[in-house]
Amino acid sequence: KEDVGWLARTRRLIHPFSTEKMGPCGYDLSVGTSYYLFSEDDGDRFVPRSLPEVQPDATFSMPPNSCAFIVTEETVNMPLDLAGQLSLRFGLTKKGIMLSPQAPIDPGYSGKIMMMLYNLSDQPRDFHRGDSFVTITFHQLSAATEAYHGGNQSGETVQDFIQSDKPIMSSCLLYTSR
């Protein structure tokens, strides 16, 4: 906890940073403004969505058996001797939300983080801007390594991460609509 706080203050590991979001071994990241959720109204187009920046308590609802891509509010700036790993907040797991398997956050990555969640429940689930939904834990490497230089560097919005013009929908919808 102390190491994460020190890195946040001295190297802007997480921005914006709040001590209230720190746990014993991780930091809770929150729902940002950029997300993607399939809608029948989109037809055969990929239509990214965003919550209004002027409404700090803005919400979107994830229908049952759907998937959504959510971008964090925070930006992470990974030093060359740290890797990060994400896990879903357990309160969401208990509500039927599942985080898709996610690759580690590489040393040298700088940007927001996008992840895909599934609503496996039979109820819609609301996501409020600013609410904690995933926890990032940091893993110290034995030495600094080369920096990440992939296509997701500096990602800020769903469009930065997903280069598509076709919709993405959950296959769960195919089985429940019969």
Rounded to the nearest angstrom, the distance between the terminal CA atoms is: 49 Å
Q: Report the C-alpha radius of gyration, rounded.
A: 17 Å
- From the spread of the alpha carbons, the general shape counts as globular
**Unreliable residue runs:** none
Task: Write structural notes for this entry.
- The chain is mainly beta and about 180 residues long.
- Helices cover about 15% and strands about 35% of the residues.
- It has 4 helices and 12 strands, in the order H-E-E-E-E-E-E-E-H-E-E-E-E-E-H-H.
- Strands 2, 3, 5, 7, 8, 10 and 12 form a 7-stranded antiparallel β-sheet that branches. A 3-stranded antiparallel β-sheet has the order 1-6-9, covered by helices on one side. Strands 4-11 form a two-stranded antiparallel ribbon.
- The longest helix is centred in the N-terminal third of the chain and has 10 residues, at about 1-10.
Write the layout of secondary structure elements.
Blueprint: H1 2-11, E1 14-15, E2 26-37, E3 49-50, E4 59-62, E5 66-72, E6 75-77, E7 82-88, H2 90-93, E8 97-99, E9 110-111, E10 114-119, E11 125-128, E12 132-140, H3 158-161, H4 172-176
Antiparallel strand pairs: 1-6, 2-3, 2-5, 2-12, 4-11, 5-10, 6-9, 7-12, 8-10
Task: Output the keywords.
single chain, 178 residues, mainly beta, 7-stranded antiparallel sheet, 4 helices, 12 strands, 13% helix, globular
Task: Describe the structure concisely for a colleague.
The chain has helices spanning 2-11, 90-93, 158-161, 172-176, and strands spanning 14-15, 26-37, 49-50, 59-62, 66-72, 75-77, 82-88, 97-99, 110-111, 114-119, 125-128, 132-140. With 178 residues, it is mostly beta strands.
